[in-house]
Request: fold
Amino acid sequence: MRLGHAAAAVMAVCLSAGPVWADEVVKFALIDPMSGSFAATGRLGEQHFRFAMDRINESGAAGPGRKFDLVVLDNEVSPEKSLVLLRKAIDDGVHYITQGNGSSVAFALTDAIAKNNKRDPARSAMFLNYAAVDPALTNAKCNWWHFRFDADSDMKMRAMSSYILTRKDLHKVYVFNQDYSFGQSVERGAKEMLTGKRDDLQIVGAERVPLGKVKDFTPYIQKMQAAGADAVVTGNWGADLALLVKAANDSGFKGTFFTYYLGSTEVITEVGQAGRGDAQISEWHANVDSAPIEEMAAAFEAKYHQAFYYWRVVNMLDMTAAAMKQANSSDPEKVGKVLAGMNFHNPLGDVSMRADNHQLLQPMFISVLEPGVKHVFPEVNMGFRTIGRIEPDQTRMATTCSLANPS
Amino acid sequence: MEQGLLVVLNGLVYGLLLFMLSSGLTLIVGMMGVLNLAHASFYMLGAYLAYSISTVVGFWPALVLAPLAVGVIGALVERYGLRPVHRHGHVAELLFTFGLAFVIGEIVPLIWGRLPVPYRVPAVLDVPLFALAGTAYPAYRLFMMLISLAMFCALFAALAKTRLGLVVRAALTHPDMVAMLGHDVPRVFTLVFGAGCALAGLAGVIAGNAFTTEPGMARSLGAIVFAVVVMGGLGSLSGALVASLLIGLVQTVSIGLDLPFYKALSALGITVDVGGRLHDLWLLSVNRAAPVVPYLLLVLVLATRPRGLLGSRSA
Amino acid sequence: MKRWAPWIAAAFAALLLPHLFASGFGLSLLNRMGIAIVFALSFNMLLGQGGMLDFGHAIMLGFGGFLAMHAMRLAGLGWFIPTPLLPLVGAAGGLASALLTGWIATRRDRTAFAMITLGLAELVVAVVLMFPSVFGGEEGINGDRSDGPAILGFDFGSQMQVYHVVAVWTWISALLMWRTTLTPLGRLANAVRDNPERVGFLGYDPARVRFRVYVLSGLFAGIAGGLQAINDEIMTSGNIGSEASGAVLLMTFIGGIGTFWGPILGAVLIVLLQVALGTLTDAWQLYSGLLFVAMVVWAPGGLAGILLAHAPVMRAGRLGQLVGHYLRLIPGFALALAGVAGLSELAFRLEAIRGGASTGRIMGLAIDATAAWPWLVAAVLFLAGAALLNRTFPQARAAWQAAAQ
Reply:
């Protein structure tokens, strides 16, 4: 027995003293920020993974005797730390990697996973992306092992911009983002899809700030006020959105925020009583009419004392479990072959995983935050009301990617 | 015009906050020659302690108690940590404070968690004070300014009028002479270190709820404070004030200037090839380049004019 | 011949190690150790040999790494750049950045030098983020190490092949750095560290000596950067920042700055702590921080200093006298350590529970951190250990002093 193996074995026993031996345990490594500015966002994700896995393990949806287990690794949204953690996860025998916060991290991971799988096929890993939405991940930089379960930023922007264009009361739009690939793609998308579409609507400012560095957004809000902006389009997430909205409240900003990520708990608590009619584009919100998900959300809240947010995490793991069951294996290549092109029925309708670029097509919802709806956030006594549902096929965009199954 | 006034107000708030941090560090550096790398960690401790205390007895008692607690912690650190290291020289002291900053940075999330804590502005002050150019100005910002100014006056009065202040001022310029005159310099060191930390703590108390109280707050401010202290001149309080306000204003004013260099150059009659090899540089705007200014000044001042802007002693 | 014995032994050990730790985990560990060793040794050229406390050492590693990464990408475009030679490109990058930053920083010494490097560290990170087309912004830049031309059928994709590249370069770099300490420049650096005025009187410019040592150190840090580029296949602004610089300071000082081999000890220990302990507990950073502070206060010579203090005792053949005393220290140390570890693990666990994790396990044991008794037990363990040490430590110290006489 080699020393390294012995050490690894001892470690493995220490780590996994819990599960029953007869079952097959499929480990998922969640590589996301668990400390630093975006810790709240990462923790929220972790809770949803635990919740979704408990459901699958109870129902046996992944196949007889097959259980899911979560390994949480803190990357502090740093690409190079993520790669060290990825190496560790693969060395520990994890075949399923999942991540969502930061397209910068996703680029590093998808690239490293593709290389790893080419060099060491026996330890292939699959990348389940639940929230990194830079379009390039399913276009120029796509690879077969990456599957995305959230709509990409262009898909979201197309829906959002078509709604903004119908709002005749809006004339001056300010585009505000984080300065990395995702923020840049939101800015580019917003400029493309809003410029020159309506004579009385113009973009009065576009700005990007360093990711997670700004603690006081007041000066930026004052710039927006000086520009006379009545709408702000932002892809900011986590603390960068919470603090932006907080500064807007403090300075009495009257414009409406059009966001991707308004619904997460830490952001909602900062929205305050302002009632600006802020909007978001998402794949789900608490007032989407669906009894099974409402039940799920209630169970989640009872357990974690947080509002249910990542419906797509549940959907992602449900689809992965179904694919495993169908493939009758937890080998990522076999599971991936089922997932690519898979049609799946969930409580919101039929969703499908595109075979050409591994982008999930699912219904999307535009909603606004206002009082007097069925499910409200108790912190602000407001909730989201759907004002538009976009069907999966309407979100399909052209792709430069064409994936073929690995030999 | 009104817009400009707002920008200046923001710059002043930030600058005075920087001064509250840098004044404490200036005293410490001036007297003991120790660049306390953990100074911003005491700022963080101030914010967290104020949060914990305010959940029990409210914000106003916390405003007094938290800085005092931070001061006591600082004095203990000096007495039982820094003093034994002193005999190994300044580099060892620097290493000690570096390690201390590291350890505090790890212990804080242990106690208060890795997520930001909900430390809030008291309801009385959580109102708009007046409106300028369509922008509401929060009352709490004015309160921050007032506290900073009050602290500033109290500090100057203490240094100018009290006997201890006299000793401290003397020790800033002539430490050996003060020791020879029979003053218990180590005890004064402990007091000054504690007081400096308490000032940092106070800054944390009033800034923690205006911005966010989270484990990374020390790191993001630490280096700026060194820049201020070094630029102002080691040991010069008035220098620290000037440098604080300068950096505060530069940082805030520059946010408003998203003017790329190539446009600035073309205004001067110079046209550049924006698509060329140096396009990063030409497209770089003033507000993106501004964060570099304090560090650039820090390095240049140290390398060329070690006495800083108004200082009399060199590093 | 005797002087070369450790190097020959190290070469054999390097050949043997990958067969003992052939798992992916073991190889990752060894690769990171090799890189850390080169980096820490280059850091100690400044701190230990030249008396320069560099808070921005990762700048040189970073520039080396970025340049090597660009070379790796060129190899992907068909240039003939063999992967094993990338550390040479890294060395050039480290050297170039050292010429620039060293020109500013080495004009001053001691505290002023340290503060300048602190400012440089912040400055460089801010500048790096401003030039995304060179440094890749938040994403950094990545490459594929197997893109280079294959040599004797090796494409350097697998970890085992990377290990051999790292091992060879670590061995060469360490040997060269050791030889440097014996050159006139190395001796002059020691003199500048101990008494710059006298060096000045002897007709040497201390600032110039510092500059030369700094540039040489930058070259080796650049090699470490090149190795890191090969191992990680990504370089980001995080590799350049103050956090990376702080990490190398920690490992070098814990290992011991007074000897050539101290930093090697520190690099191996910290990487082990980070990787091995990192899978068992989240608290490893706290542990290394506490260890560092303890070293600064009680053992400024680091681990190597502690070991070295026993050399005279060993030569006198009196090591036996100490064994009994040292054995008596163990229970106190063990108790205190268990107490500290228990308290911080409980705190970490409690924090995780508040964050929504399940009650989970602490080092494999089912302990409920929300209950009071584990905290009491840990506190009692710590206090008992401290009390024991308070009695046994002075005795051990006295015994050592007696033996070292």
